[in-house]
Amino acid sequence: MKLELRGITKRFGSLVANDSISLTVQPGEVHALLGENGAGKSTLMNVLYGLYQPDEGQILLDDEAVVFAGPGDAMQAGIGMVHQHFMLIPVFTVAENVMLGHEPTHAGGVLDLAKARELVREISSRFGFEISPDALVSDLPVGAQQRVEIIKALSRDAKVLVLDEPTAVLTPQETDELMVIMKQLAASGTSIVFITHKLREVQAVADTITVIRLGKVVGEAEPTASSAELASLMVGRDVDLTVDKPPLHAGADALVVTELTHFDDHGQKLLDDVSFTVRAGEILAIAGVQGNGQTELTEAILGLRHRVYGSVKLGGRELVGSSVRDILDAGVGYVPEDRKKDGLVGEFSVAENLMLDRSFAGPFTKGLGVDFAHRDEFAREAIGEFDIRTPGGSTPAGRLSGGNQQKVVLARELSRDLQLFIASQPTRGVDVGSIEFIHERIVAVRDSGIPVLIVSTELDEITALADRIAVMYRGRIVDIVPSDTPRSTLGQLMAGVVA
């Protein structure tokens, strides 16, 4: 099926999320929609899927204009979508999930589960998915759950399949398997729209690439285009995609984590005897598929989690049992994985956010109040040093782009006297140009002799920044390996396969 979008515009108040976007997806083509988070890719696909109504423009299928009042209309017309966050019910079987919403029935309205099972077997066999129709979704690994989502779409006779950031939660091996599946689907005649911000994957699988920046189509490219060319289109300027990291000159062990264990309020063990060290002047990167204990690890070190056992020593000082305030005062800088929820107060100005955690003491206080002159001068210097694109220090932080919000958090944390720097998902939702800057600052911290702990689900980022890599799986560190370890080996570790 041929898909064409003509002049699609979608506004949310004064924000123009999609600005007269046009593109064509041919039958049996893998068409990559490439752009940074916030560029408007997902909004455009939500318009296609009937979740949003376009303010202007047309959707055409096989040269005929169509209007979708909702996802049901889109599915009826042959549009399928696999969302970044899976729409599966964990306690249901694969067959039950696949039939949900268009249940086959016997005479009298009785559910025909056997027909659903047979449909799952047929699609699974056709594409080599190896998915049992009777398996509980909760028992399946993430990669298999994604295949269930694809089976759901194909069971409804999808001729156009939209994959929204499909590799965000996959191991490298699962990503490679998905690339093979996409090529098989395209070869069978299915048109695929592949939404991503990852250059390596686009080059591996796309037939055509459309690049979106700030809600507009800024160009089309062939998959033979270099990473530098694609990055330049995404950002609007030349970008250095390599991390210039001087040779390691690490000192003594500075952060020593021993048998760190954490239970949630229901008694489930989320961290299981985690032990590692980070030397002064070294970057230790934590790799793993999201949800394997990385968040709990950083928050346990920061004192943000209760029911934490074991030991975390920084420069010989025990941190377990200390308050968050005491840990921060011990010289721990922390960039949380969710800057909007945990890193910033959106309604506060940039200047106010830059002094968070230190507004109660010098140098930001004067008598019993805030020294506003010092605060504003500090903000001016930080805005310049960290290239924060803002009209000024009085601008609410919530109005900045994602990359500039991240720079505010980074500037605040790196302006303190540090003994340890922790950054969780440091470049999530950040454009390629800001990634370049953030990586440079992280390496500069390392080169100043401070231990650095990085958590990221982006394997390219892990291998570029790390001096050593610790891989987490189900709350445990399964191995700590050199930074030049092959991606295939890292992928096996991330899947829990230990030699």
UniProtKB/TrEMBL annotation:
GO terms for cellular component: plasma membrane. It is a peripheral membrane protein. GO terms for molecular function: ATP binding; ATP hydrolysis activity. The keyword Ribosomal protein does not apply. Gene3D superfamilies: P-loop containing nucleotide triphosphate hydrolases. It is found in: Cell membrane. Coiled coil: none annotated. Keywords: ATP-binding, Cell membrane, Membrane, Nucleotide-binding, Repeat, Translocase, Transport. PROSITE patterns: ABC_TRANSPORTER_1, ABC_TRANSPORTER_2. It comes from the Bacteria. Residues 3-239, 255-499 form the ABC transporter domain. This is Heme ABC transporter ATP-binding protein. It comes from Amnibacterium flavum.
